[in-house]
Amino acid sequence: MTFRDPFTGAQQSEPVLVFDHLWYTVTSGPTKGTLHSFSSPCSGTTQLPGRCRTSALVAQSFALAGGGAAGSWGGAFGLTNRGRAACTLFGYPGMQLLGTEGHPLPGVPLPTTVIRGQYEVVDAVPERAVTLSPGAQARFYYMYSDTLGGGSPAVCPTASAIEITPPGAYNQLVVATDIAPCEGHVWVSPVTASTPYPLVKGIP
């Protein structure tokens, strides 16, 4: 498929087998950060709303109803659109573990290492655009290990809060937590509208 950049006029080609949509985020100009979508001429779909800005979102913590596997812990964070217009989330979030004074958690690599998928529950979630009407919620799943390599028990620093950067955003949401990922490694899924694993309200 060949398409033309709406700002520079340059043409770009993408090899595809089936191409329902092409999503891109504007990186400069007055609409910087806006998520756009090209749809197939035969799909009959319309352009997605712009991306969800951090200021329009509120984060909520959830726990897995069944817990995690031995040595592994996980849960989810919900991202609710509290704005007045629909918006779209697409892709993976960023995360940073914080200590009691709101600084990056000491004793782990800085910044926190976020690993995309392929660990326990997070590898089952596909990467898709999620459109949120006002009041609607998307979520992403996370997992971490409380053991070091080889399964040895470890005492790993416990975070007091976690800083979440929504996909495509530059500002963060801060949520209280008490997770303790060893070496600061956290596996995450992309944002999703589905609930592939049962969740319960997190604490706090």
Report the end-to-end length measured between terminal Cα atoms.
Answer: 48 Å
Q: Tell me how many strands there are.
A: 15
Q: In order across it, which strands form the biggest sheet?
A: 9-14-11-6-5-15
Instruction: Give the overall shape, derived from the CA principal axes.
Output: globular
Query: Which range does the strand content fall in?
Result: 35-45%
Q: What is the residue-mean pLDDT, rounded to a whole number?
A: 76
The count of helical stretches stands at 0
Largest sheet geometry: 6 strands, mixed
What low-confidence regions span 5 or more consecutive residues with pLDDT below 50? Answer: 14-20
Report Rg: 19 Å
Helix content: under 10%
Oligomer: single chain
- Derived from helix and strand composition plus strand pairing, the structural class reads mainly beta
User: What is the element string, with H for helices and E for strands?
Assistant: EEEEEEEEEEEEEEE
User: Can you tell me the number of structural domains?
Assistant: 2
Architecture overview:
- The chain has strands spanning 2-4, 11-13, 21-25, 35-39, 57-64, 72-81, 87-89, 94-98, 113-116, 130-132, 137-145, 161-165, 173-176, 185-188, 199-201.
- The termini are far apart.
- β5 (57-64) and β6 form a beta hairpin.
- 0% of the residues lie in helices and 36% in strands.
- The chain folds into two domains: 2-39, no CATH class; 54-201, no CATH class.
- The strands form five sheets. A six-stranded mixed β-sheet has the order 9-14-11-6-5-15, with no helix packed on it. Strands 8-12-13 form a three-stranded antiparallel β-sheet, with no helix packed on it.
- By secondary structure, the protein is mainly β.
